[in-house]
Design a protein that fits this description.
Distance between the termini: 25 Å
CATH class of the largest domain: Alpha Beta
Shape: globular
Strand content: 15-25%
CATH topology of the largest domain: UDP-N-acetylmuramoyl-L-alanine:D-glutamate ligase
Number of helices: 17
């Protein structure tokens, strides 16, 4: 983070400095006393389940140099004289205000990524490619909501030319608010798919919420959009600023053709972009990764990066942990660890990858429930089971809730040995007993199902092949 004085924080939040000196320097911002670093400023957020004011003492013990609390907060005993206490009306509002102030004082170009699928990977890939030519700051981890994005913005420093962030949402208006805070110059819109249907009445309503990113760009901004997605293309058509399209279709300005999955650690395709057409190889499997990489290529070319530099960068990209990396086990089987999250479109895309990777004798889908799908949930799960059978998956293992419908869809399509388990812990034991040499296993599900426990159980029981884990090396 740009080092901020307590006086600057007071001005940025509109708060009152009630303890400590205005010249006190703060070196980071945190809302979690467990991960706070010495010198940080701790915001005591009052959330729906926990009140951060209860953890102020723990934050100070961990080395916090300052605290932002609601007006009227009473510290038990004397407040540490070397620390600062700033009181505000609303701590979450103050965090957003401070992030907005940091962004307003930062002279670089801010890129925001949104979409129903692939936000984190697209953000990581774009930042990785662009960092070969520019000093880049990107959001740490999955900081993509109205708590995480403000925290990520406070990491902007004067030396950064570019900032790459992602914006998620579960309600209309959230992306618009994030745009007011972050003031993006460039937007990347990946896709619109049936996710969060528990909170929206249609996919078109989701599209309208995603369109808030384009609406939040300035007139001289840039929108990078997926030409293969009709709803996304319609959003781009309404944007009055500059645009660049990417995708697989001939209409895309930056496109991938002739995609071929060569193995668990290789996908080859022909890249076409301004000034270049030629072969490219990514060090992981799946057409979805190719699509995730194209926006970074589009921006790199727009900002003058040589095609050869971008092609070299593509060869060095790595997926984030729990987002599609390959784990090879010494026992002779391999796992695609995509356990971080799931939705129907993403699951079908990964089933395609599972089916296309050559040189495995059996393909197993371990699919957790996909949540927040509303009244369409059972049907969407069932369709995924049918799709898995049609794509040649040999066995489906469902975990939790409506994942039973994935299994039912698979069984009714001929996968008679498929099984359903109510929780990840029970499923983990079955998977460990089930796998054998030559198997390729895809593990994927919504965060609340905790599919990472199945991956963890396999790693505790079976040693990895040395040097062959894409996730471990990434």
């Amino acid at each position: 983070m740009t080092r901020l004085s307590a006086a600057e924080v007071q001005a940025g939040t509109g708060g009152t400095l009630v303890c400590g000196a205005g010249a006190t320097l703060l070196t980071g911002v945190s809302i979690d006393s467990r991960t706070l670093l010495p010198g940080d400023l701790f915001f005591a957020i009052r959330g729906p389940r926990l009140d951060g004011h209860r953890f102020i003492a723990a934050a100070l013990s961990a080395g916090a140099r300052g605290v932002v609390a609601e007006r009227g907060y009473r510290h038990p005993g004397p407040f540490p004289p070397e620390c600062v206490l700033i009181e505000v009306d609303d701590t979450h509002g103050a965090l957003k205000a401070l992030a907005g102030a940091v962004r307003a004082g930062w002279p670089g170009t801010l890129v925001a990524v949104t979409g129903s699928m692939g936000k984190t990977t697209t953000r990581r890939f774009a930042a990785g490619l662009l960092s070969r030519a520019f000093p880049v700051h990107q959001a740490p981890g999955n900081f993509n909501n109205l708590y995480g994005l403000p925290l990520a913005l406070t990491g902007l420093e004067p030396g950064h030319r570019l900032g790459v962030f992602e914006m998620g949402m579960s309600a209309s208006g959230e992306i618009a608010e994030m745009c007011r805070i972050a003031r993006p110059d460039v937007g990347i819109l990946t896709n619109v798919a049936p996710v969060h249907l528990e909170f929206f009445d249609s996919v078109d309503a989701i599209a309208r919420a995603k369109a808030e990113l384009a609406e939040g760009l300035p007139p001289d901004g840039l929108l990078v959009y997926n030409a293969d997605d009709k709803r996304v293309a319609d959003i781009a058509a309404r944007y009055r600023g500059d645009t660049i399209s990417f995708g697989l279709s001939p209409a895309a300005e930056v496109r991938a053709e002739e995609i071929q999955v060569l193995g668990p650690e290789a996908t080859r395709f022909t890249l076409t972009c301004p000034g270049y057409r030629g072969p490219v190889e990514l060090p992981f499997a799946g057409a979805h990764f190719v699509l995730d990489a194209l926006p970074g290529v589009a921006l790199g070319r727009r900002w003058g990066m040589e095609p050869e530099t971008l092609v070299a960068g593509l060869r060095e990209l790595r997926p984030a942990e729990m987002r599609g990396g390959i784990l090879r086990f010494a026992a002779g089987f391999a796992v695609i660890d995509d356990s971080y999250n799931s939705n129907p479109g993403a699951l079908m895309g990964m089933i395609d990858t599972l089916a296309e990777i050559p040189c495995f004798s059996r393909r197993i889908l371990v699919a957790g429930e996909m949540r927040e799908l509303g009244k369409e949930s059972a049907g969407l799960h069932f369709e995924c089971g049918i799709f898995a059978a049609r794509r040649g998956v040999d066995l489906v293992i469902g975990v939790g809730g409506d994942a039973a419908e994935i299994v039912r869809g698979g069984v009714e399509s001929g996968l008679t040995g498929s099984r359903f388990f109510t929780d990840a812990e029970t499923a983990a034991g079955f998977v460990a007993e089930c796998v054998r040499p030559g198997d390729l296993v895809l593990i994927k599900g919504s965060r609340g199902v905790h599919m990472e426990k199945i991956v963890g159980n396999l790693r505790s029981r079976f040693p990895l092949s040395q040097g062959l884990s894409m996730e471990k090396n990434g």
